[in-house]
Amino acid sequence: MRETDGFGVDVAVEASGSYSAANLCAQLLAKRGTYVQLGLHHGSAGFDLQPVCAKELRIVGAYAKINQDWHTAIQLVRDKKVDLAPLVDSVFPLEEYEATFSRAQRPVGFKVMFNPWKAR
Questions:
Q1: Distance between the two ends of the chain, CA-based, in angstroms?
Q2: Among residues 57, 62, 74, 117, which one has the fewest Cβ atoms lying within 10 Å of its Cβ?
Q3: Is residue 120 part of a domain?
């Protein structure tokens, strides 16, 4: 809020599927701002509706899944036109799946990745 002198932002996009990120977006929005939800949440909603009413926010849901988009995205990564390395916090061997899933449930780092060919 400091960057906007307390006014907030006009549009906030949440694409991680994290309830804490969704609530943060609602808090950071300016009055009559627009909240766009791209990531899918699992389980029941943990979303605070108080800022929605108090700030008269607009909520927009979006579901982006076109098969060609996946093929295009994979090709961009394959051609090294998009670098995913900054998105991956840690890489773990497949044998450590239990500890890795436990770690992924906590708000530590960004994304984790399995490498089935990486030895312990």
A1: 44
A2: 117
A3: no
